[in-house]
Design a protein that fits this description.
Low-confidence stretches: none
CATH class: Alpha Beta
Number of domains: 1
Number of helices: 11
Bound molecules: iron/sulfur cluster
CATH topology: Rossmann fold
Distance between the termini: 50 Å
Largest sheet: 8 strands, mixed
Shape: globular
Order of helices and strands: HEHEHEHHEHEHEHEHEHH
CATH superfamily: Thiamin diphosphate (ThDP)-binding fold, Pyr/PP domains
Strand order of the largest sheet: 2-1-3-4-6-5-8-7
Structural class: alpha/beta
Length: 284
Amino acid sequence: MADFRYDKATWCPGCGDFSVLAALQQVCVRMGLEPEDVVCVSGIGCSGKISQHFGSYGFHTLHGRSLPTAQGVKMANQDLTVIAAGGDGDGYGIGVGHFIHACRRNVDITYIVMDNHIYGLTTGQASPTSKKGHKTKTSPAGVGEEPLKPLELAIVSGASFVAQAFSGELKQMQNIIEAAMKHKGFSLVNVFSPCVTFNRVNTYEWFKEHIVNLDEEEGYDPTDKYNAMKRIAETESVCTGILYREERPAWHEYVLGATETGTVKQTLDITPADAAGLIDQFRR
Ligand code: SF4
């Protein structure tokens, strides 16, 4: 059986990111994937360490840049299962431009955001998803802005799979991550992943009290975009489950054709002498 354990995670005891790593490892085994079939591309922050702790190929990129790197990996080799991962500061702050374009581009990757509503690695500053009024080191009088709404932003930007999970509900998170990885196209899994050290407001208990599980809502239809937007707004974005999904061709199917496997599998119709000449031109 494949083993996706690599090294001992160094997150604080109780950090929600442990559950995300465990869910991802278990789903990969459940799907029969081998470590060499999978690439995990992460950004900067506590959550960015996931590419080091996960026993697949890994790429720890620059701040906010996991999505362009992950899309490039998938465009180059369609045979790989590509996971992009990061936190709310990384993905919805400096990386938010990439996020919007990844949603509309629909490259077949899964983006897991460990959303703890704070910057953890830099010891507790307000992040794009910090709630209005939250007092932090950078907002001693309380955050003055409305929080960024990643689920709504993903849907209006054209994401074809939008889900939300909670680190305190491992089984549901596994099912959501598996569905996201099987989805053809860009899938967002925003995970409430509490920072037990620097966010004393949005704790496991806080999420348990506030979460509305739409997977348990009878008759909830995730293909109904307008109802998805309505329920997300009604629950003030504290809902979990597969919130929206849509079948449409992924980027490579639309642009390259369904049988195209990406540039790494293409044979170059040039001689070694031609290749040497090309390299020589770049040297000049
Ligand atoms: Fe997790 Fe917060 Fe510790 Fe970072 S600082 S490892 S987010 S608990």
